[in-house]
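Q: Please design a sequence for this.
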C-alpha cells in the first residue's frame, strides 16, 4: 500500500503586472478602436479628465495635472507619468479616413425601405438580411430560419412565407444577392427580359447542366442541349461574366472592407529617404482630476471607516489612471519602433513600392531587430495600416516567407506567387499548364519549388486547377 503524506514544491511563476496587461490590450487596437477605448475610460474612471488648454484661460479652475507625490507615502509616481499628450498644435487635430463605403447590409436595408411590406414582413426581411453571409449568400435553410425568427423575434412563420419574402430580397441590387447556392445565384443574374440567344442558352446550361458545367464537360452539354460549339462558347462567355459572389469577396486584411481605415503610420520620402511619422490622434490629453486628489489629501489625516473607504476607492482609480496613461505611451513607443524596423528591413521596397523588392520577412526578423517578443510584434502588426506615397497597406502585407533559389539567393513567396499569376494569366487557355508544368517553368527561372508547394500557392491565389481553367 502506497504511503500518503504532504510535500512542498517550490515553483517560479511569472505574473503580468496591471500595466503590462493594459499595454498588451492597447497594442492590439487600431486607431479608431483606441479612440473609443480612451473615451470609454474617460467615462468609467472619474479620476481621468480631458485636459484643457491652460494658456487660453489661466483663471480656469478645471482639472489640472496632479502629482501623487503630494500625498506623502500614498504613491511616489512622478507627475510626468500621470498625463499623456496625444495632440499636436491644432486644438482638435483630425485624421484622414480611407476605404469608406456603405456595407452590404446597409444597402439592402435601404432598398427594403422602398418596398410595400407590412411591419411583420419588414421585421422578417431585416432578420433575413442580417443572416446573409459576407459573400451575399443565405446558407441557412428556411426551416431553421423560421425557428430562429420565432426564438429571436417571437414571430411564428413558415417556409412558404419566408420564400415569398426571400424573393423580394433577391430582387435587390446587386443582382444575385440572397441566393442559397451558386446555381441559384447565376440563375438570378440570367433572369432577364427578352434574353438574347446566348443568354437563353446560358440559362439552360446553368439550369439543366450545372454539374457538367462545373466539371467543364463541354461535349456533354452540347449533346444534351443540341447546340453547336459556337453557341456553347457564346453561352459560356455569358456565364463567365456573372458574379459568383455578389456580396463582394472578403479576403483577410487585403480586402476593401466596408469600414473606416485610419492609417496608424504615414511614410513619406524626405530627400529620398523614407521617414515614418505617426498621425496625430483625435484623442484628448489625459490628466488626473484635481478634485479627487484634494479628496485624498483631506482624507489622509482622517481615520474613520468612511474616509478610509473613500481613500481606497480614489487610490484604486488613481492607479488605474496611471496604468492607462503609461500603457498608451508604451503603445506609441512600441508601434514606432516596430514600424521603423519594418522600414529598415524593407528599405528598398519603401523607396518606390516595387513589389519585387520585398524581401522574405517573418515576425521573428522584426522581433530580433527590436528586442521585442514575437507575440508583441504580432499584436502590433494586426489591424494596423501605413499610408505611403504609393498606397495604403496593412502591415501584414510586408511579411512573407522565403526560399533559396538555385543561385543561392533568398526569394519571397510573394515573388513566386507573382510569377505564377503572370504565367497563368498568359498561358494558352485551350491548353492550360498543369502544376507539374508550372514547376518546370519555375525551375527554368531558377526557383526550386515542389509540386505540392505550387499547388498550395495556386490555391492561396484562388486559381483553379488546369482542367477548370480550360476554355473552349
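A: Design:
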Amino acid at each position: 500500500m502506497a504511503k500518503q503524506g504532504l510535500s512542498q514544491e517550490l515553483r517560479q511563476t511569472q505574473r503580468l503586472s496591471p500595466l503590462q496587461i493594459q499595454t498588451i490590450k492597447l497594442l492590439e487596437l487600431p486607431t479608431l478602436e483606441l479612440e473609443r477605448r480612451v473615451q470609454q475610460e474617460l467615462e468609467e474612471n472619474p479620476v481621468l479628465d480631458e485636459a484643457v488648454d491652460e494658456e487660453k484661460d489661466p483663471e480656469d479652475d478645471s482639472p489640472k495635472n496632479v502629482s501623487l507625490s503630494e500625498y506623502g507615502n500614498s504613491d511616489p509616481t512622478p507627475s510626468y507619468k500621470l498625463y499623456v499628450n496625444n495632440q499636436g498644435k491644432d486644438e482638435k487635430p483630425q485624421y484622414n479616413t480611407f476605404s469608406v463605403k456603405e456595407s452590404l447590409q446597409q444597402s439592402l436595408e435601404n432598398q427594403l425601405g422602398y418596398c410595400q411590406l407590412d411591419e411583420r414582413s419588414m421585421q422578417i426581411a431585416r432578420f433575413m438580411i442580417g443572416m446573409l453571409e459576407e459573400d451575399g449568400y443565405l446558407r441557412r435553410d428556411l426551416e431553421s430560419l423560421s425557428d430562429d425568427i420565432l426564438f429571436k423575434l417571437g414571430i411564428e412563420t413558415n417556409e412558404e412565407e419566408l420564400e415569398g419574402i426571400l424573393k423580394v430580397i433577391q430582387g435587390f441590387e446587386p443582382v444575385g444577392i440572397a441566393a442559397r447556392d451558386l446555381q441559384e445565384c447565376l440563375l438570378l443574374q440570367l433572369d432577364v427580359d427578352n434574353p438574347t440567344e446566348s443568354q437563353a442558352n446560358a440559362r439552360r446550361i446553368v439550369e439543366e447542366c450545372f454539374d457538367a458545367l462545373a466539371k467543364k464537360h463541354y461535349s456533354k452539354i452540347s449533346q444534351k442541349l443540341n447546340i453547336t460549339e459556337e453557341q456553347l462558347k457564346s453561352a459560356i462567355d455569358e456565364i463567365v461574366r456573372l458574379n459568383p459572389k455578389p456580396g463582394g469577396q472578403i479576403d483577410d486584411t487585403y480586402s476593401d472592407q466596408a469600414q473606416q481605415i485610419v492609417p496608424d503610420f504615414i511614410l513619406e520620402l524626405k530627400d529620398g529617404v523614407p521617414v515614418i511619422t505617426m498621425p496625430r490622434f483625435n484623442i484628448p490629453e489625459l490628466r488626473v482630476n484635481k478634485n479627487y486628489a484634494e479628496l485624498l489629501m483631506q482624507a489622509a489625516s482622517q481615520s474613520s471607516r468612511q474616509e478610509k473607504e473613500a481613500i481606497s476607492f480614489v487610490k484604486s482609480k488613481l492607479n488605474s489612471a496611471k496604468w492607462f496613461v503609461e500603457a498608451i505611451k508604451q503603445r506609441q513607443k512600441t508601434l514606432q519602433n516596430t514600424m521603423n524596423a519594418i522600414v529598415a528591413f524593407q528599405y528598398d521596397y519603401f523607396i518606390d513600392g516595387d513589389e519585387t523588392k520585398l524581401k522574405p520577412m517573418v515576425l521573428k526578423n522584426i522581433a530580433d531587430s527590436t528586442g521585442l517578443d514575437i507575440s508583441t510584434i504580432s499584436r502590433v502588426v494586426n489591424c494596423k495600416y501605413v499610408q505611403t506615397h504609393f498606397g495604403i497597406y496593412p502591415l501584414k502585407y510586408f511579411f512573407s516567407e522565403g526560399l533559396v533559389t538555385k543561385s543561392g539567393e533568398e526569394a519571397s513567396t510573394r515573388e513566386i506567387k507573382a510569377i505564377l499569376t503572370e504565367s497563368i494569366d498568359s498561358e494558352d487557355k485551350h491548353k492550360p499548364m498543369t502544376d507539374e508544368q508550372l514547376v518546370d517553368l519555375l525551375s527554368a527561372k531558377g526557383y526550386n519549388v515542389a509540386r505540392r508547394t505550387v499547388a498550395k500557392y495556386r490555391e492561396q491565389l484562388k486559381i483553379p486547377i488546369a482542367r477548370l481553367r480550360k476554355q473552349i
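Q: Thanks. Anything notable?
A: DSSP finds 20 helices and eight strands in the chain. The radius of gyration is 31 Å.
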